[in-house]
Every structure is written in structure tokens, then in C-alpha cells.
Known about the structure:
Layout: E1 2-6, H1 11-22, E2 26-31, H2 34-41, E3 46-49, H3 60-63, E4 68-71, H4 83-91, H5 94-106, E5 115-121, E6 132-133, H6 143-156, E7 163-169, E8 171-173, H7 178-188, E9 201-202, E10 204-206, H8 207-219, E11 225-229, E12 235-236, H9 237-248, H10 258-265, H11 270-273, E13 277-278, H12 281-286, H13 295-304
Parallel strand pairs: 1-2, 1-4, 2-3, 4-5, 5-7, 6-13, 7-11, 8-10
Antiparallel strand pairs: 9-12
Helix pairs in contact: 1-8, 5-6, 9-13
The structure holds NADP nicotinamide-adenine-dinucleotide phosphate.
Amino acid sequence: MQLVVTGATGTIGRALVGELRERGHNVVALSRDARRAADILGSGVKIAVWPDPAQTSPPAEALGGSDAVFNLLGEPIAQRWTAEAKRRIRTSRVETTRRLVGAIRELDPDRRPRILISQSATGFYGARGNEWVDEDSDPGTDWLAELTADWEGEAAQASDIMRVVRTRTGVVLSPDGGALARMLPFFRLGIGGPVAGGDQYVPWVHLDDVVGALIACLENADVSGPVNITSPTPATNAELSRALGRALQRPAVLPVPGLVLRLLYGEMAEVVTSGQRVRPSGLLGLGYRFSHPELNGALDEALHG
Ligand SMILES: NC(=O)c1ccc[n+]([C@@H]2O[C@H](COP(=O)([O-])OP(=O)(O)OC[C@H]3O[C@@H](n4cnc5c(N)ncnc54)[C@H](OP(=O)(O)O)[C@@H]3O)[C@@H](O)[C@H]2O)c1
């Protein structure tokens, strides 16, 4: 297939593009920086420049004639949420998805891709304590939850012209980026531990399963709408800390008070001081077989290969 990937240079995008290429697909990566993207992705991937995704349309020639689009771009969430950072986090998801869908709609119908797999996040559900949530659960009401619902809403606009899947992805375990990469230095020094009491659930998922699930969504013509991409065994933050300490053979007992995180990161601290106990009902219903369904095995693989 001819597949377009936005955010292809990111943690998830790089892994996805690698696997798509392994399977023999042609990949066109949309990036703000062609040279950097070529360095990261290598010569087998065609690069098309989308210089300012929140302000300009993606290049129509890159989308026309393709079979499917994976929409994975977005300003990093894990930064202090100043007013300006919030604007970037929001526009880099909501506006860009609107422009992507608008550009697909403008293509001649016989040149349009037939599938849009648009990234979303478990932040959609907001802070839920130990309540189980799945794809049928209501959205949350905090800033990130509302942003995520708007982000999904833009993707869903394309449902009349193509099959649209909204992948509500959890906390991705990869040593190369995301939450685990940020936690590792502290745990390696033996100064990691449960955050803000540790009772909140972490909807973790191994990067291999993010890639596997995205490809399952591509290949399965019956899948549309929201799909949770999380492991079937969400852990509490305290369980994740213990498992990380075990995998690194370091103590993981130093609690990190929520107040300290709020002082350091402001409102963004909510992302780690609260959480969701997510069930991947859509993937389980599809018969998707997780490569790393258990936390200890997933961490061992992510950390030691
Ligand atoms: N990693 C996770 O745990 C996780 C969990 C749930 C959801 N997600 C979501 O999944 C998507 C991909 O995650 P990721 O971890 O792979 O992200 P990432 O490593 O931060 O990469 C995202 C890519 O988006 C592009 N980008 C960054 N800032 C941008 C901006 N302000 N405007 C336009 N493009 C921008 C960059 O590509 P170029 O520089 O090449 O343009 C970057 O490589 C994100 O939307 C993220 O929120 C991630």
C-alpha cells in the first residue's frame, strides 16, 4: 500500500514507519523539516514537507493516490502548560487534523485515501480513579480531555468519505521517548518512586503493541470509531514504580509528592497525578494478540531488548 504518516519522526511514528517498510509498504512521511526527517527515517521513505501544519494545508500531491493516512503529529504534552504551550498543544492537534481532513476532502474522490487512522489519547476519559473505562465511556471534562475530544471530532468529520479510526493510546513504554524515557534517569539513580500516593492507574502499553494495534486498525476493514490502545492489564502508579525498580534492580521507594510535581509542572502534573483504568475492549474484540500483555515482561523488553 501507499501510506502517508504525519508525525513520522516521533517515538511512535519512527517505530510504525519501520514496521510498515518491513512489510513492504511505500511510506510518505509528512514533516516540518525534510532534512531532519530524512536523517531519522532513512532513504527508503519519501518525505513531503508540511511546513506549518497548524497554519497551512498539507501537500495535496502527497495525499492523492495514497491508500491510508496515519495522523500522529502533535506538540509534546509533557512540558509546563504555559498559555503559549497550551495553544501549541491544542492547535498542533485540532487545527492540523482539520486541515488534513479538509485537504483529503478536496482531492478528486478517486484519488482520496480510503482510511484515516488518527491518533488520540486515553486522556480523553479524564481523571477516573479506579473506575474501568472503555470505548463506550463518557469523555472527561478537564482541559486535556476536552482538547482530545475536539481532536477526535476533527478526525470524525471525515467519516462520510472514508473509514476513520480514532486510536486512544495510553502511556507508551519505550526507552526512546515518552513517559518511560523521562522516568528512567531518576529510577536508574535509585531516586524514583510512586507519584502522588501511587493509587492512580497508568494505562500503559508497549511500543510494539502500539505499532501492532495501529496496523491491525489499518488491515481490519470492520474497525472504525474509537479504539483504545492500552495493555489489558493497567497498573497503578505504585505497581509501575515497583516493576520499574525490579527491572532496573534499583530501589523504587522514594515517594514523589503531588505537590512537588504541581510546583514543577503546574497544571500538567495532573497527567501523572491522576489517570484512567482503561480496558482495550475494541482490540480484545478484534482478537488482537498483545506482544507484551504483562507489565514485567513489557518493561524487561523495553529496557533490555
Ligand atoms: N508517546 C505516548 O505515550 C503517547 C500516548 C498517547 C498519545 N500520544 C500521541 O501520539 C502522537 C505521537 O506521539 P509521539 O510520542 O510519537 O510524539 P513525538 O515523539 O513527540 O513526535 C510527534 C511528532 O509531531 C511533530 N510535531 C511536534 N511538535 C509539533 C508542532 N508543534 N506542530 C506540528 N507538528 C509537531 C514532530 O514531527 P516533525 O518535526 O517531523 O514535523 C514530531 O516528531 C502525539 O500526538 C501524542 O500526543 C502519545
